[in-house]
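Sample pair:
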Amino acid sequence: MGIIVVSTDRGLAGGLNSNIFKNVLLLAREWQGKGATVSLCVLGNKGLAFFRRLGMPILGGTGGLGDRPHIKDLIGTVKVMLDAYREGKLDRVFLVNAQFVNTMTQKPVALQLLPAQTVAQEGDPLPEHWDYIYEPDAAAILEGLLTRYVESQVYQGAVETVASEMAARMVAMKSASDNAGNIIGELQLVYNKARQAAITKELAEIVGGAAAV
């Protein structure tokens, strides 16, 4: 099975990347336990560096997507996974990325891209079957639609990860600024105490010297 991982290019985003990587490792371990071989396709410099250190097989990868990723930058990497799926080297393809919930909350999510899953709800009426004539044939149309579907889902994952990165970095920088302010306040208190002790010592020495005279 294959996993497309969307990470960030830069750090200082709190636990965003580590949560994504943890989700990927849990998913990989689950399928390895079923006897499957796991291959990765990684978007983002942080993900490439992390999984290369682990020695996991990476079929494709790209970095430097920037703050405004474009779908043309993702097509080549996604095509590697699609070709492997068509050739039967992969039986499933998952997408793992950060989902932007709000400014304070970003969570890793895993979505099965291939084979595509239906979203019919329990109790929905069965769809009627019509015999259409397709040009080109239905298989070619379906393959094109599935390709565009996978590309759009990966692009959405990349955009949501960028939004999550911005929010996580903002929260991380605010926490760092607050912590720095607290440390400065504590050090200022220590400095004032040391300064007051030095002044008191000097006054005591002056008074003692005057009394001796």
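The chain has a mean pLDDT of 89.
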